[in-house]
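Fold it.
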Amino acid sequence: MTSRSEELLPATCRALLHRTATAQVEGRTPSLVAGVLRQGRIGWSGGRSCVDGHEPDSDTQYRIGSITKTFTAVLVLRLREEGLIDLDDQVEKHLPDSGVGGVSIRQLLGHGAGITAETPSPWWERTPGDSRPDLAAVLGERPFRHPAGVRHHYSNPGYTVLGSLVEAVRGVSWEEALRKEILEPLGMGRTSVRPEAPHAGGWAVHPWADVMLPEPSHDLGLMAPAGQLWSTVGDLLVFAGFLARGDERVLSAAVVREMRVPSVPVESGDWANTYGTGLQIVHRDGRTLFGHAGSLPGFLACLWVCAEDDVAAVVLTNATSGPPITEVAQDLVRIVAEAEPRIPEPWRPLTEVDQELLALTGLWYWGTQRYGVRLLADRDLELAPLLGTGRGATFRAERDGSWTGLSGYHAGESLRIVRNPDGSVAHLDLGSFVFTREPYDPAADIPGGVDADGWRGLSL
């Protein structure tokens, strides 16, 4: 095959429209709009409305609530990439008198700081932001509910603190940093802090009757970094593509992958959901998806990406409650992935060959267990057991000639080549584990040594 169409098949589009239309009817919502990104391109979008001839499209703004937090997390990571902060810095180092003591920036990003979930009364989502003029008013008299670092406790005020951190380090408003550092580089011209026409109005739908009530829409003030933004399906699919692949103008692919790494222990018994750095992570239908959901009075929003299938979906609606939009978006991903499986890129050989690295490939032994080493792109190595279970991992090449583990048991551990005096390879050292070309090679530095009499059979 030399070419392929990026457009979805008519049957797939009908299935997507059916799921979207069903969600609008069963969820009893004034309007609902959705879209799908496949292999970096918008493959489909569609909307339904209770008013004939006024269906929303991919350019209609809705409020996206806590998806805003993912944007704030990206701004914080940009500070880290520029060397202006370290994620393990205490917040007080950059934001004195913040009111959160010695918690780290990393703990705030992953909702692991133990900070209260909400502000003191009145409910911040339905009241003007100027009623909370400073962080003390946002956090209240008792901001901590748990010790820092021991559990996931979702915190809206925690992301307000992160927004104030961005402002303190950058010296500009959170809104200006957002516009210059994310929205403009990615071309997200329909994402804004305040609504810009065409946009939907927010409604509450009566639970027992087909009647509606308009919801208030306030500027959230200091709470803006936790949930202020308005956006469209079109813009959010662009953002989904960035979260899947990265963009050197904002964050590299390696850094956006880092955002998907779980940050704190999951709740007991809940192994299907966790949280990374500004991203929710879920396991559904045998797939791992990352993204974020959001809500504010009158609006529900969600964005989910499946990197393995290279499919993303966005769903937006203008009702306080009703349609299970996270489930709907995940269904849209599933429909595309199952109806039109991803066609992989062709296999291609490396453009350059490092003979010394090539010599490391092949069979190695940890004790008596057999492992294979493969040379990957960018000088990375893959170490994997050949039979049964074992601790395999991919290792990233470092400038000093070592490799750092990227996953599983060996994540963060160092793999080193140990050489003989003549320069030949003696063995591999992985965090004190010795890998040799022969099982328990007596010529290598085997921990505990090797019996001088060597291998033997059973003496009768």
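The CA atoms of residues 303 and 314 lie 5 Å apart.
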